Amino acid sequence: MLKKFVYIFLLSSFLFSCSADNPLNSGRPPVTFTVHIENIANDLFLRTSSGKNEKLLFSPGVWIVYRDAAKNPLFSEGEKASKGLEVLAETGKPESLLAEMKKNPEVLQAGIFEIPIGAGVTTPTNASPGKIFEFSFKARPGTKLTFASMFIHSNDLFFSLPDSGTTLFSAGEEPLKKDISDQIILFDAGSEINQEPGNGYNQPLKQQISDSGETENSIIKELNEVKDGFVYPELEKIIRVTINNNEKRRN
Ligand SMILES: [Ca+2]
Ligand SMILES: [Ca+2]
Fold it and tell me: How far apart are CA 7 and CA 68, in angstroms?
């Protein structure tokens, strides 16, 4: 009788631990993933019409893991940005978007990346060339990742993945290690009128009053569909994003 009781206790503890940290209730242990968002614009500057060379910068941002059957909780292309995404895209501050994500039932995990890895950096700040934002999380099959970070020398542009996010496991449920740099898109949040990159008085490093700008009242679009007349750097020269995991190959 005691044996049976112990067995039931162990089984129920096991089931509880599975359901407690994984709403998908997969039987396998979760895999630890580590993501790097790296500013690789080492020799590249924004040359503005006022004759200045500005360093390219990414803001702190928000990452989320969500069910792969769900609609992307961060945003949908062609729709208006949420208030939290608008704040991130206009100021580079991630807290209100994180708060929104934590209330969204489709979001399994959410977090902020805000202190870049690199010499002399110990507090939240933008990632300058050569610096890397890193974050880690545990996930099981059936999940996707996405994130958002502001392109600082803009009014309301943010880096993210397509609406579809990116899968963390193969169809055979093997955790993926991959370079997803070519999936990164610069989006216009549609909330503030664009000015010349690096030279706009309503942009975060120039504006006299926090969050100043002309309301755009538009929808989220890929920047290359926005005809604002400005020239932007090629993404493959400024950002590298990689996903790694702690799983050793089984075969
Ligand atoms: Ca805009
Ligand atoms: Ca602004």
Answer: 34
Contact 86, 136 (CB under 8 A): no
Tokens representing 191 are 């909330």
151 Cα: distance to centroid of ligand 2 (angstroms): 12
Judge contact between 119 and 109, C-beta under 8 A. no
Q: Which ligand is nearest to the CA of 193?
A: 1
Task: Give the Å distance between the CA of 65 and the centre of ligand 2.
Answer: 29
Residue type present at position 231: V
Q: What is the pLDDT of residues 139-158, one digit of tens each?
A: 999 999 999 999 999 999 99
Domain annotation for the chain: domains and CATH numbers: 29-245 (2.60.40.2130)
Distance CA 60, CA 156 (A): 14
How many angstroms does the Cα of residue 190 sit away from the middle of ligand 1?
Answer: 5
